[in-house]
Design goal:
Layout (H helix, E strand, L loop, with lengths): L9 E3 L6 H8 L7 E5 L6 E5 L2 E5 L4 E4 L8 H6 L2 E6 L5 H9 L9 E3 L5 E3 L4 E13 L2 E13 L4 E5 L2 E5 L2 H4 L2
């Protein structure tokens, strides 16, 4: 599948036949600016997180680590399904919104998947996950999830460096 001339997302269910696509989707993560979302008894919630990593292509696994001291921790500690959204350079306000407010979905284009998880639109990549395990990690909980659906698109990444948001250009943009 070629994405070079496509502005439409490429959606797929990861399997052993398309590990290149999953590797490419993982490659959309620049330096750690994500928003993780889940359903809760209080409605849809999200949190800005920089503790994201791809773990395995077969099976398709990712991890992230919510802070136990966060007021939102209980939502994510209990979540059996969640989505990790890798943000584009145009989503700085979205990043800041979820850093301040767990319910920052007002005026935000999003949908709800079959598991009730809110899905933010127009991200560089999105990984819909089912929780596999959780491990103690000091003041964080390390949450391991199986990617059940992924989506990616072209664009520049939102980055976080030295306490400031920035962006990283997509390598293909340099060739134009």
């Amino acid at each position: 599948m070629n994405m070079q001339n496509s502005s439409h997302p490429v959606s797929f269910a990861p399997d052993t036949e398309n590990t290149r696509l999953l590797r490419d989707a993982f490659g959309r993560f620049a330096t750690g600016v994500t928003v993780v979302t889940t359903a809760s008894q209080d409605g849809p919630v999200g949190i800005t997180a920089n503790s994201f990593s791809s773990v395995s292509l077969d099976p398709p696994l990712v991890l992230w680590a919510p802070d136990k001291g966060s007021r939102r921790f209980s939502y994510f500690e209990a979540a059996e399904h969640y989505a990790i959204h890798v943000l584009s350079h145009e989503q700085g306000e979205l990043c800041q919104g979820f850093a301040k407010n767990a319910h920052a979905f007002e005026n935000l284009e999003h949908s709800i998947n079959e598991q009730g998880v809110p899905l933010i639109e127009n991200c560089l990549a999105r990984f819909e996950c089912a929780r596999v395990a959780a491990y103690e990690g000091g003041d964080h909980l390390i949450v391991l999830g199986r990617v059940v659906r992924a989506e990616m698109r072209e664009g520049n990444a939102l980055t976080f460096f030295a306490g400031k948001l920035g962006h990283a250009a997509h390598p293909a943009a340099d060739e134009k």
